[in-house]
């Protein structure tokens, strides 16, 4: 973890400098803009929000729902499914993040930062500082360091919506609550009970949803539909058009063949 310690030391100096800047300049006002008045949302609150939205929007409808979740959205989707079983016809988890991967250095580093309020604030200030630069500079930085293979639309979304102080604060706060909850095992009893209505797509080299998790699902809930994407797309498939089209076709074929769902 020496590399992480050195990066943190550099970050601490940057935080102190940027904090002074944010208090004294108009840039600071941009960095700290917040439409939610500082509220941070946990994983549990995100699940509640999705359930409330479905119940409100479809309270007078008997139309069944096909639920699709990517990454932590797969965990959220399963929890929504548990609470709205009469409304959900089918659930699809894409590159699912269902529990912590103890072998992932990336997850360890993110967890370390997310648990520290000071470091989370520093990362958020840094992100919002990048977002406050001239648009061409911000796009160049995002393209260079985050998304060299991202589509123009994905880069624009990151620049316009992700690089804001309270967006990043919420990202890291939710990550902290995710990592706390995902130390637990998935609800295998529920997965077995609804295995004919559940499908997962895994990637070949994805530390968020490693193939060891696929193997565990196949043993704990053997009726769940399991597939492995081998076309060279990644966990961030949704940030480029080839990955998005491939996954969209995969889901479309699943829906067409969903009665009955069988193992691939």
Question: How would you sum up this structure in a few lines?
Answer:
This protein is about 60% helix and about 10% strand. The protein has helices at about 1-25, 25-30, 45-55, 70-85, 105-115, 115-130, 135-145, 150-160, 165-180, 190-195, 210-220, 240-255; strands spanning about 65-70, 90-95, 200-205, 225-230.
Structure description:
The structure is a single chain. The longest helix has 23 residues, at 2-24. This protein is an alpha/beta fold and 264 residues long. Helix content is 58%, strand content 9%. The protein has helices at 2-24, 26-31, 43-57, 72-83, 105-115, 117-131, 135-145, 152-162, 165-181, 188-193, 211-220, 241-256, and strands spanning 65-70, 88-94, 198-203, 225-229. Residues 1-32 and 260-264 have low confidence and may be disordered. It has a four-stranded parallel beta sheet with strand order 1-2-3-4, sandwiched between helices.
Helix coverage percent: 55-70%
What does the largest sheet look like?
Answer: 4 strands, parallel
Terminal Cα separation, in Å? Answer: 40 Å
Q: Rg, please?
A: 20 Å
Shape: globular
Number of DSSP helices? 12
Structural class: alpha/beta
Order of helices and strands: HHHEHEHHHHHHEHEH
The unreliable regions are 1-32, 260-264
Topology:
Layout: H1 2-24, H2 26-31, H3 43-57, E1 65-70, H4 72-83, E2 88-94, H5 105-115, H6 117-131, H7 135-145, H8 152-162, H9 165-181, H10 188-193, E3 198-203, H11 211-220, E4 225-229, H12 241-256
Parallel strand pairs: 1-2, 2-3, 3-4
Helix pairs in contact: 1-6, 3-4, 5-9, 6-9, 7-8
């Amino acid at each position: 973890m020496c590399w992480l310690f050195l990066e943190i030391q550099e970050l601490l100096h940057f935080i102190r400098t940027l904090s002074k800047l944010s208090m004294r300049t108009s840039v600071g006002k941009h960095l700290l803009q917040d439409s939610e008045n500082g509220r941070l949302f946990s994983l549990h609150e995100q699940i509640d929000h999705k359930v409330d939205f479905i119940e409100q929007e479809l309270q007078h409808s008997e139309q069944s729902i096909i639920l699709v979740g990517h990454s932590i959205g797969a965990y959220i989707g399963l929890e929504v499914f548990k609470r709205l079983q009469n409304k959900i016809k089918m659930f699809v988890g894409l590159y699912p993040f269902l529990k912590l991967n103890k072998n992932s250095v990336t997850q360890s580093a993110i967890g370390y930062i997310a648990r520290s309020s000071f470091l989370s604030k520093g990362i958020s200030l840094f992100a919002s500082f990048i977002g406050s630069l001239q648009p061409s500079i911000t796009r160049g930085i995002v393209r260079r360091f985050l998304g060299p293979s991202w589509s123009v639309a994905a880069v624009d979304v990151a620049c316009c919506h992700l690089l804001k102080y309270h967006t990043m604060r919420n990202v890291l706060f939710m990550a902290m609550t995710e990592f706390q909850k995902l130390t637990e095992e998935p609800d295998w009893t529920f997965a077995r009970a609804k295995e004919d209505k559940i499908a997962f797509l895994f990637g070949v080299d994805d530390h968020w949803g490693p193939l060891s998790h696929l193997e565990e699902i196949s043993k704990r809930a053997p009726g769940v539909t399991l597939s492995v994407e081998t076309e060279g797309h990644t966990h961030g498939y949704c940030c480029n058009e080839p990955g998005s089209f491939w996954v969209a076709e995969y889901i479309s074929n699943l829906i067409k063949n969903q009665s009955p769902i069988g193992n691939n």
